[in-house]
Amino acid sequence: MDMPTTPTPDASNDRPATQRSAVKPSRGPARGASTMAAIHRSLRAEIVEMRRNPGEPIVEKHIAEAFGVSRTPVREALQRLADEGLIEIFPQVGTFVARIPVNALPEAIVIRTSLEGTAVRYAAQRATGSQIAGLRANLLLQQETVEDGDLNAFHEADERFHALIAEIAGYPGLWSMAQQVKVQVDRYRRLTLPEPGRLTHVLAEHAAIVDAIADADPALAADRMAVHLDGLLTSIPQAQGANPFFFTGP
């Protein structure tokens, strides 16, 4: 396992966790397993959404203070994140947000493409008029987030778009399975969203998928979904080149 190198200076890294809005519980601290789950959920969201950058240190004391708890549930949450490959714990050194394993991305994207290809085929066979209208409403929401330049809102609308397709297919579990394998892909994908024209391009691909579903053409829908997700594969070298410290592997 690679030892962490000194991350690029970032003012946000120097702030204690108590100053990070995302780690502040909205209510009084819970206890036991619920406390661990809340800490895990909060830190996981920060890491996946790239609000904590790869290589950034995580300080147990700051997290415990933010939640008003002892370090025990914090350590349990951190161990769970380590099991998920999102952080690295180096005894006597520290705990750091894990870098994105570039070698794991292609397989995760292929698995996701297989799952979502199946979902969109069934969606094209089964979609009702109201369900297609729901997809088009989601496209409008995506368009609004693009116009606002709101990357987080776009990502949320994007995720909902893919979840809707699985629901229309009648197999929502396909999206649940995709979410389990794409966590590292989500981190990498966040780096691509600010690229000029990227959001508009993704939106156009989504619209093409909806058109194929509306035309009740399963083969075309699956093809367009494959083209859409294949873009994640082809963009890996560019994202890695622009953010070399954020990745690990060749």
UniProtKB/TrEMBL annotation:
Polar residues biased stretches: 8-21
Annotated ranges, domain HTH gntR-type: 33-100
UniProt keywords, alphabetically: DNA-binding, Plasmid, Transcription, Transcription regulation
Keyword DNA-binding: yes
Span list, region Disordered: 1-34
Protein name per its UniProtKB record: GntR family transcriptional regulator
SMART domains tied to this protein: FCD, HTH_GNTR
Organism: Azospirillum argentinense
Domain of life per record: Bacteria
Example GO molecular function: DNA binding
